[in-house]
Design a protein that fits this description.
The chain is of the alpha/beta class. About 30% of the residues lie in helices and about 20% in strands. It is built from 23 helices and 31 strands.
Length: about 750
């Protein structure tokens, strides 16, 4: 009888892998044992059919498992094993993955809706669903190292937990009403009698706002169909226009938004992300405009936990389910923290007594013509890992600290990159505190010891200062990496472009990033790889009058772009309410008016030209999002590109503004003008990128940067590049949420073979 030592690597802990192996072993007549250890799952097996047993480990793995590698070697047992057992976990240290939190599985959902001891129980789960990362304190993933340690199992749960044939075998959050977490509805600081779910539904129907403790933090919920409740929530949360996320069952979502088969699959993914869905067209029941002012899509998610399923069953309609925070601050996770920060917003608190170990927002994703796209990598996706591309074998451990906005960190270890969950904008002091906690948390949890630290080239970003401090304290190399090079590397890495692969033409369109020449970049065509790049073309720079003020107020960008195009008269007419002379003087002298090639500010300028935002934006990206929403209302024949000029290596928007003014004077619709802008910008960058590929200087085109969150721009650019090899983002955000992944790859490439930034 043959004997083997089988190592399974990947996402194989906390996902029911050991009972799955136990059942396979019984089926194939295998004896021995299986256990968790710091490297994953270890199997010591003896039997006559080990080839078939080994093949089934990958082919039939549980739904939440991700098998990266199966390594097999002969093994000698001291004595022939009798039967097959699941042995206790052993070893310390973290060399394996942690499974992300997973939405309620069909079996648990049926259970809470059927007679039995878990009927109506808000914390039912099994090895195929439930909390993971949000309850984990340390590895290996065992109950004693989670926030469920505070809930001793009752005899019935213990029997399920210890039965390898039960779907709850070693499900660490296993619970029931007799031994698990419990709900409390609190109003004015006092528990409200009665069923907390039923009473919460009653309050929501009355137009109240309820703070709900979920998996990774609090939500603020209200009736999505009640204009007065929406208005109250916006006023209290200080969120005048930013779209609210919505929750409902699939049949409810289909009444209010178009849902394709691919979008339905994305909604039903175990990650349960918020999915942006179109509301354009006939036959849909409208929700109040206050849900998402000026938008042509709504962000919907399915309920991810039994609590949310039960609440929606009781309420009977769609709910707003937005992050429980003050605008710009981190989401609350503790009961006392929620009472303090949300007390002026919420009329009631639906609480439970299971602690949240770490803060995770809801993920945000969308389907595009080129496939799925991650906008915010968060609950349900993190801490899933990404394989490093070919050629990065032997990479030392690297820490990358990301950027200032949409911050995230990235760790590399054992051929994998761990891109953290969304942490937020580091301009906010509380988010900055959260960033530093997350860095320490991830390092401890994954036993990470970096040999080098990567950061953004901008020395004043808080993330860059943090990286510098860590590098100095540990005497490690600090590797500043140009912002747009990191975006390019992130796209290359996600598409498994080899370390020694040919250069790629990268169209990198975003808001702001410090360039090698000391100016602010953001509309770039780069030719490069992981080790370096050259700047092949870029938007013609224009001043950012007022510095940060130009990010807040789109009209400032319109002023300088119209003046640059020789259209001062149009600027005077359209912007007469603003202090134009003062800003023109500052721009001419370069006083608080740095030069920038930003595509994001060009979007802002054109949104201002169409009068989509008056004064200041109420949230980051508002002008650009409204511009995309407007363009999607245009007929297909309106996609006739506005012209852009070319001056040496500069792409000049002046001809575009001249053509727009002609359209404006002849009464063209704003939607058509918005569409022509998108089509013109796409063609302006696609044309030189195509030339780089067709000349043989580049092997493909990569589309990256925050502007490519815009699905319309992505689709139009891809169409203009038809026939060429194309790389786009799917799992890694195109925005600054993916920046740390690119920084980690560039830093690793330098560690493996030198190379330096080039411009």
């Amino acid at each position: 009888m043959e004997s083997r030592r089988i190592r399974v690597r990947g996402q194989v802990q906390g996902v029911g892998f050991r009972p799955f192996v136990w059942q396979l072993a019984r089926r194939h007549g295998v004896s021995g044992e299986v256990l968790n250890d710091p490297e994953g799952v270890l199997i010591l097996a003896a039997g006559p059919a080990l080839d078939a047993f080994e093949a089934a480990l990958r082919a039939e793995a549980p739904p939440l498992a991700r098998v990266d590698a199966i390594e097999s070697a002969p093994h000698g047992f001291a004595a022939p094993p009798e039967g097959f057992r699941i042995a206790p976990s052993r070893g310390a240290g973290a060399e394996t993955r942690v499974a992300p939190d997973a939405a309620t599985c069909p079996a648990c959902l049926a259970e809470i809706r059927s007679p039995g001891r878990r009927q109506g129980y808000a914390f039912a789960n099994c090895t195929h669903c439930g909390p993971r990362f949000t309850i984990l304190r340390a590895l290996p993933y065992d109950r004693a190292k989670t926030t469920m340690a505070a809930f001793p199992m009752c005899p019935a749960c213990r029997a399920e937990y210890e039965d390898p044939a039960d779907r709850r075998f070693h499900a660490q959050p296993i619970a029931c009403p007799d031994c698990g977490p419990r709900l409390t509805l609190e109003v004015e600081g006092r528990p409200l009698p009665g069923d907390p779910i039923a009473e919460t539904a009653r309050l929501l129907r009355e137009g109240r706002i309820v703070a709900i403790k979920a998996l990774g933090g609090f939500h603020l919920a209200c009736d999505a169909a009640n204009p007065a409740a929406l208005r109250t929530l916006r006023e209290r949360k200080r969120r005048p226009a930013k779209p609210f996320a919505l929750m409902g069952p699939l049949e409810t979502i289909r009444r209010h938004a178009h849902v394709s088969e691919a979008e339905a699959e994305l909604l039903m993914d175990p990650a349960a992300p918020v999915v942006l869905l179109s509301t354009l067209g006939d036959g849909l029941a409208p929700l109040p405009a206050a849900v998402a002012p000026g938008m042509s899509s709504l962000g919907w998610m399915l309920p991810a936990t039994p609590l949310h399923h039960l609440l929606l069953d009781a309420f009977g309609g769609p709910l707003v389910m937005t992050s429980g925070n003050l605008s710009g601050e981190p989401q609350a996770i503790g009961d006392a923290e929620a009472r303090e920060t949300l007390g002026a917003i919420a009329d009631a608190f639906l609480l439970h007594d299971r602690e949240i170990a770490r803060r995770l927002d809801d993920g945000v994703e969308r389907m595009t013509a080129l496939g799925p796209m991650t906008l915010r990598r968060a609950r349900g996706r993190a801490p899933g890992t990404l394989p490093l591309p070919p050629g990065f074998e032997g990479t030392p451990q690297v820490l990358a600290c990301g950027g200032q906005l949409k911050s995230a960190i990235c760790l590399t270890k054992n051929g994998q990159a761990l891109l953290s969950h969304h942490l937020g904008d580091l301009d906010d002091a509380l988010t900055w505190d959260e960033f530093r906690r997350a860095d320490a948390d991830m390092a401890a949890l994954f036993d990470h010891r970096p040999a080098a630290i990567g950061c953004d080239l901008h020395p004043d970003f808080r993330a860059s200062r943090h990286a510098a401090a860590r590098a100095e304290a540990a005497a490690l190399p600090l590797l500043p990496i140009q912002h747009h090079h990191a975006h390019l590397a992130a796209c290359l890495g996600e598409n498994a472009h080899p370390l020694e692969g040919a250069p790629v033409a990268g169209i990198v369109l975003d808001g702001l990033g410090l360039g090698d020449d000391g100016t602010v970049w953001g509309g770039e065509l780069l030719l490069g790889d992981y080790r370096g790049f050259e700047r092949a073309a870029h938007l013609r720079p224009a001043p950012l009058p007022g510095g940060d003020g130009a990010q807040r107020e789109p009209w400032r960008n319109l002023l300088v772009r119209l003046d640059q195009a020789g259209m001062e008269g149009a600027a005077d007419e359209m912007l007469s309410a603003h202090p134009l002379a003062l800003l023109r003087q500052a721009a001419a002298r370069g006083v608080n008016a740095p030069l920038s090639s930003s595509a994001g500010r060009l979007f802002d300028a054109f949104a201002s030209a169409l009068e989509l935002v008056e004064g200041a934006q109420s949230y980051e990206g508002e002008a650009a999002m409204r511009l995309e929403a407007l363009a999607l209302r245009a007929p297909a024949e309106a996609a006739r590109p506005y012209p852009f000029g070319r001056i040496d290596d500069q792409i000049d928007p002046a001809p575009m503004f001249e053509a727009w003014l002609g359209d404006r004077e002849t009464g063209a619709s704003p939607a058509a003008m918005a569409m022509r802008f998108h089509a013109g910008l796409a063609r302006a960058f696609a044309t030189p990128a195509r030339a780089l590929v067709e000349s043989g200087r580049a092997c493909a085109v990569a589309l990256t940067g925050g502007c490519f969150q815009n699905a319309l721009l992505l689709e139009l650019t891809a169409a203009a590049l038809e026939g060429l090899p194309l790389m786009v983002h799917r799992a890694v955000p195109a925005n600054d949420g993916g920046l740390a992944f690119g920084q980690a790859l560039v830093a690793a490439a330098r560690a493996l073979g030198g190379g330096a930034e080039s411009g």
